[in-house]
């Protein structure tokens, strides 16, 4: 199989049918090097409005740590940051790395928070490789309302495990994503595989 290089042939690589639905930027119907992550589930946050999360008392990332790990789907609690499963995962094992503090931007983190934030991201990747063997990962942060953050007031980093063929027609056509494990099962697997030596101050996590 030949991988797309992103180069567009002279004719745009389009059929007559493609040309009828392609805009001036030649986006539809043109092969390129981008792999698009379709997330129709994010409409639950967009329709609800960002103002619903603008205070720590209403922010799920602030309220979550006050509940049990099982209830909040927390995989690991660090000293300054914690790891939680995404309630609307793109794939099984889709986790979020969050600081406990209610801050909006990566630049708001202290040096210590940044170090733990990064370390937990690396550990999450190692744990996911161990328990589910993904072929790759998507890692990233959407910051600010215009940056596409579902909950813009509380910084969080996505770690999404990827497998070949996991982006089929269902999320695009039917706005449905087939998830093969329950969130509780995934949380338990990851929590059990999380290394004890990554707990803060040498304590068991």
Short descriptors:
single chain; alpha+beta; five-stranded antiparallel β-sheet; disordered N terminus; disordered C terminus; about 30% helix; 7 helices; about 200 residues
Structure description:
With 205 residues, this protein is α+β, with helices and mostly antiparallel strands. Helix content is 28%, strand content 12%. It contains 7 helices and 5 strands. It has helices at residues 16-21, 43-48, 60-63, 69-72, 111-132, 170-174, 183-193; strands at 74-77, 81-85, 95-99, 136-140, 157-162. Strands 1-2-3-5-4 form a 5-stranded antiparallel β-sheet.
Summarize, please.
This protein has 205 residues and is an alpha+beta fold. The protein is built from seven helices and five strands, in the order ααααβββαββαα. The longest helix has 22 residues.
